[in-house]
Structures are given as C-alpha cells and as structure tokens.
Design brief:
This protein is mainly beta. The protein has one helix at residues 36-42, and strands at 10-13, 20-23, 30-33, 47-53, 57-61, 66-72, 75-80, 86-91, 97-101, 113-117. The longest helix has 7 residues, at 36-42.
C-alpha cells in the first residue's frame, strides 16, 4: 500500500464503492474516539478519525447516496445510504474541516494515531494496550 508521501492525494470510498472521495491535503492528528456514539455508529470499540480541511475534501461520486444523521446538536455523521458505511463527519461549529473515517481510505494517509479520546465511555470489553495518551473526554485544545 503506498504511503501518503508517495501519492499526491488520498482516495476513499464506502463499502459498496458508490460513495467515493479524495483528499488533496494533509491529514490532521488521528484520534481513536471511544464515545458511545462512535461505538454505535461503527459497531466496534472506537472510530479512527482525522480532521481534514473541507476545501481539500471532494466527493467524486455518490452525492445522491449521502445521508446525514445529526448524532448530537450540530454534529453530523455522513454515511452511504446504500451500504451504511460511515464516510466522514462534519461539525457546524468547525465548518472549515471534516472528519474523515480512516477505515474508508484506500491509501495509507501517512499519519499515525496520537491519542485515545472519550475513554470514559470505553467499551468494557476493550482494553487499550498501547502507550498513546488517553483522555476521559476530549483533549485540551492544541
């Protein structure tokens, strides 16, 4: 799999391939989010997300299949209405950025996880076994 430095852009898609996108910029810090909303939306212990400038994110296909769900006030989870795959998220209070779900990427984004967040909601059956910093809720602003 090529790394971010070997490709000019990163591409991604939903499970069925109907929603496709590209990122033509750098990825922000990657965080593993353990909140109960991410657990339920992924069906797993956490989601892996990276903030990307909205101007660097482009939907290439599947506009008509995009569905949004406001999971908390002003926070929207965007997914494919055909296969249900979470693709990205947006927050009204941070309109210059989207949060890309790293599992939807086709290439290595070239960044690695920097923290676990919302570990106060961590699934009881999942043990964090790495040395990344853990934050009970959201981390302090950088």
């Amino acid at each position: 799999m090529p790394t971010r430095t070997e490709v000019e852009m990163s591409t991604g898609s939903c499970l069925c391939g109907s929603v496709r996108f590209e990122v033509r910029g750098s990825f922000g810090p990657v965080r593993y989010c353990h909140c109960t909303l991410c657990q339920r939306s992924t069906g797993s212990a956490f989601s892996a997300n990276s903030r990307v400038r909205a101007a660097d994110f482009e939907l290439l296909a599947g506009d008509s299949l995009i569905s949004e769900y406001e999971s908390s006030p002003g926070a929207y989870r965007i997914f494919c209405s055909r296969c249900g795959s979470p693709v990205f998220a947006r927050v009204e209070s941070d309109p210059a950025f989207v949060r890309v779900r790293l599992g939807s990427l086709h290439e290595d984004p070239g960044v690695r996880p920097s923290a676990h967040v919302w570990v106060g909601d961590r699934a009881a059956w999942f043990e964090i076994a790495d040395e990344l910093p853990c934050f009970s809720t959201r981390p302090p602003a950088a």
